[in-house]
TrEMBL record:
Gene3D superfamilies per the UniProt record, alphabetical: Nucleoside Triphosphate Pyrophosphohydrolase
Enzyme Commission numbers on file: 5.3.3.2
CDD domains: NUDIX_IPP_Isomerase (cd02885)
Catalytic residues, chain numbering: C65, E112
Gene Ontology biological-process annotations: dimethylallyl diphosphate biosynthetic process; isopentenyl diphosphate biosynthetic process
Pfam families the UniProt entry points to: NUDIX (PF00293)
Name of the featured protein: Isopentenyl-diphosphate delta-isomerase
Keywords: Cytoplasm, Isomerase, Isoprene biosynthesis, Magnesium, Manganese, Metal-binding
Length: 167
């Protein structure tokens, strides 16, 4: 069975489910999460999405991101995916949320209510190469500089997360 996402209204209240690909073929608001981990120097752990991903393959983004499954708590989903993608277990706390839309060159859409979690981690991740192509730690200052010089190298939601950190 195809993976399902949780459809939500503008207040993040669940209103149903839909196949993940269907929600990205026709822009349908659904619940998502993004995890940002920081090391003891205050640098963020970034991942480069695997080139084979259905959208944004080969782009740099925050430590981990995905969708909770139906009936799955968003924090539990964030912890599950952090382990699946990066091989990391750490304490997470939700810092903010936002809604965004994006259109991709391949005809897919994002329309997500994104919960953003922060945590700490200073070691090397054990990446799942089906999900993650590369990783690095960067200071927020270096992220902002590279984002301004090379915005095409980053996912649209990551750009918005960095903007939110600046406000």
């Amino acid at each position: 069975m195809e993976e399902q996402v949780i459809l939500v209204n503008e207040n993040d209240e669940a209103i149903g489910t839909m196949a993940k690909l269907g929600a990205h073929l026709k822009p349908t608001l659904h619940r998502a999460f993004s995890v940002c981990l920081f090391n003891d120097k205050g640098e963020m752990l970034l991942q480069k999405r695997a080139s084979g991903k259905y959208h944004c393959g080969g782009l740099w983004t925050n430590t981990c991101c995905s969708h909770p499954r139906p009936e799955e708590d968003t924090l539990n989903a964030a912890n599950r995916r952090l382990m699946e993608e990066m091989g990391i277990t750490t304490e997470l706390s939700e810092v903010f949320d936002f809604t965004y839309q994006a259109v991709f060159d391949n005809g897919l859409f994002e329309y997500e209510f994104d919960h953003v979690f922060f945590g700490t981690f200073s070691d090397k991740p054990l990446i799942n190469t089906e999900e993650v192509e590369d990783w690095k730690y960067l200071s927020l200052e270096d992220i902002r500089i590279d984002l301004s010089r090379n915005p095409e190298k980053y996912t649209p939601w990551f750009k918005l997360i960095i903007e939110k950190l600046d406000n």
